[in-house]
Predict the 3D structure of the following.
Amino acid sequence: MSGSRLTRWVLAVPMALLALATIYPLVFTTNVAMKTRREYVLDRFSPAASLQPDNIVTAWTSVGMGRYFVNSLVVVTISVVLLLLLGSMAGFALSQLRFRGSKALFLGCLAALFIPFQVIMVPLARVMADSGLIDTYPGLILAYVAQFLPFTIFLMTSYYKTVPGEIVDAARIDGNTTYGVYRRVMLPIGTPALLSVGILNALFCWNDVLISLLMMPSADHRTLMVGVTSLRGQYSDDIPTFASGVLIAAVPVLMVYLFLQRQIADGVTAGSTKG
C-alpha cells in the first residue's frame, strides 16, 4: 500500500505542477485585464484593486475586437464546412473506391503535411493577388482550405479504412449509387470523425495569424488573432487593453477544449485502431 501511495504521489506532483503552469498564464492575463494602466505600471503582479471589466469593454467596442470576432467567426465557419465536405468525399474515395492512382494521391496528401506554410506563402500570395482575392473573405477561406485539407483528407481516409468493405457492397446491392453510398452510409458512419476533425480545423483556423495577416492586410478585414497582435505595437504601452484582447480571443478556444476534449482526443487518434 505504501508503494502504491508513493507511486500516486510521484505521478500527482508533476501533473499538479504542470496544471499550475498551464493555468497561471490565464489567471495572470485575467488579472492584468482587470487593472488600470496606472495599476499595471506600479505593480504588474499584484492582484487588481477591483474587478472592473472596463478594459474588456474598451477592447470590444473602441478597438474593434467585436468586428474582428465576427470576421473570424464567418471565415472559420465557412472554412470548416468546406474542409469537412471535401475531406469526407476524398477520404471515402481514397479508402473505399478502387481506381488507378488512388495510392499515389493519398501519398501526395500525406507528403503535403510535411510542407511548412512558409515555403508556399510567397507563391500563394502572388496567385491570390493575380486572382484579385487578397483582402477578401473568399481568398482567406480558400487559403485555409488549401492549407488544412491534406490533414483532413489524411484523417478521414484513415477513419474510413476501418469501415468494412461489406457495408459498402451491401449498400450497392440495395441500389445505391456511389454518391448514395457516401451520403446514406459513409457520412453517418463518419460522424464521430467529422466532429473531431471539424473541431481541430476550427481551432487551427481560429488561432492562425500568419495566413490571415498575409491574406487580409487591411484593418477592416482582420481576424481576431491578427487584431489582438495589432493591440501591442512599438509605441503602445496599454498592456491591460492588450490583455483584454488576448482574453477575448482565448475564451472561445478554452470553451471548446473544456467541453469537447474527448472529441479532440478522438480526432488525434482517428483511424489508428481497427474495429
Summary: The chain has a mean pLDDT of 85.
